[in-house]
Write a structure and sequence with these properties.
single chain; mainly beta; 580 residues; binds MU-OXO-diiron; 32 strands; nine-stranded antiparallel beta sheet; binds calcium ion
Length: 580
Amino acid sequence: AGAVGPKGLAFAPIAPVPSTTDQLTVPAGYAWKPLISWGDPVVQGAPPFDLDRQSAEAQEKQFGYNCDYLAILPQGRHKALLVSNHEYTNENLMVPGFTTEAALTVEQLRTSIAAHGLSVVQLRRGKDGFWEVEPSKYGRRFTGLSTRFELRGPVAGTDLVKTAKDPGGRTVIGTLNNCAGGTTPWGTVLSGEENFDQYFRGHPQGDQRNQKTYSLVKDGKPSEGRYWHKADARFDTAREPHEINRFGWIVEVDPRDPRSTPVKHTALGRFKHEGATTLVATKGNVVAYMGDDSRGQHLYKFVSRERVGKGGKGGRSELLDAGDLYVAKFEADGDPATDRDGTGTWIPLTKDGKSAVPGMSHEEVLVFTRDAAAKVGATPMDRPEDVEPDPRTGYVYVACTNNTDRTSPAPANPRAKNKDGHVIELREAGGDATGTRFDWSLLLVCGDPEDPSTYFSGFPAEKVSPISCPDNVAFDKDQPGLWISTDGAPSTLKLNDALHFVPLTGADRGRVSQFLAVPTGAETCGPWIDAADGSVFVNVQHPGETDTARVDAPASAFPYTDASKRTPRPSTVQVRRTGK
Ligand code: FEO
Ligand code: CA
Ligand code: CA
Ligand code: CA
């Protein structure tokens, strides 16, 4: 009785969990297991996790910190590949004896740089139906420290990305702040480089476009960054002004080919990329939808110039090398505070291999994309995070996580001081994802359902779970309905962050039901849904994150249930239906 959810994943919604609770909470009839945690071996021959002996060399072969996006790519029935992003690091929970970031040694800094990036591990099906990590040739790390990326697309080889160590401007060492992501029709994984600015030391005489638009100057002062310049001079913009232009891209990795060279795709623009998700348009072009997750930043799409066959046949990475980049302008025909639907335009930033923005070159539009979007009058959004097209309908769902800086409502951003966020449904005109017009409506205006400014597509507020700060959105490949994970409920609702399910059609459209809650201090990332297997995968990111928590004095023991553990470990978790 009271079960919701799609076929294969029926569940009774859990009660919201107070933000002090240090456990992963799942519905009745479901069980969970950590699949892999920070420091576990990834590359063959990696040493086991040892908190007192972490080194850059070990970390380069082990699962990174703060797992974010995840994908489970099947290899037949009994094996699969897990791909996970590692967004950032919490040194106060990683380094025994931590005092301040400024006091970290060069080796500790290098270990942190190595804990960024992505991991690939092979999985095999265990006897109990849960997946287990299997050492194999597929085990691979992409790190901030040493992995060589090929810079591709229109910006590759141009002056803006040339450095002393890479005078050709085509090879970048490392990927950083990999947040959300998506799969491509040809089986690879895209990952967004998000808050890359934090790793770079600002400079008063630096390129003003980076200083201002990409936040290297705050309150008139150049940022000190995370002291990474002490480990590697390229992170000091005074010494290497162009290195920073080589981060902030969508990267592509091919987990099925352990020897492949990963790519940074410059045709998709440079900003604080949350992620990128793709679909094949009816005409055959590959379309990538992307959010720039900062207050007042924008929503984008890329349309490939070349086309693929039906169902993505013939799709390949090179499709992302050339195409048009657009940014969204939302329009409302009433008061934006109360108007819940409207139309919109995709404004071109690049067109047919040229700049479409007056006063900016093609390369400048792609490297300083935020400036280009502002110039053409794109709509400043409430932190557009993950964006995901429904594989059944092509409708696109945009998670706007929050924006307490907003002073007045704007089309598709209905609340000033929007602390709880909202979710937009975007429908391309005529169902053509390559076009320039769309319709939009608000699916959810989030918050405590007792707050009169919330909206659940007309579903009665008293029958939904509280939801705040939507961040990642996901679909199962077969079963309808949107899955939404959150990042911020502890501060807005005093509840642990959550994973929710929301039907999109029929009488239950807007009925938000909570599936799980992550432990204290964590945010819910991933998620990856496999309804046919009765499984939900989430990345439990930054468990026990507080400014004052330390190794040996943590706020969370996750994934352990034994509170004597010295520090929590961000982990990929499988939740599986075990009851009838
Ligand atoms: Fe890394 Fe926008 O969350
Ligand atoms: Ca309207
Ligand atoms: Ca996110
Ligand atoms: Ca986040």
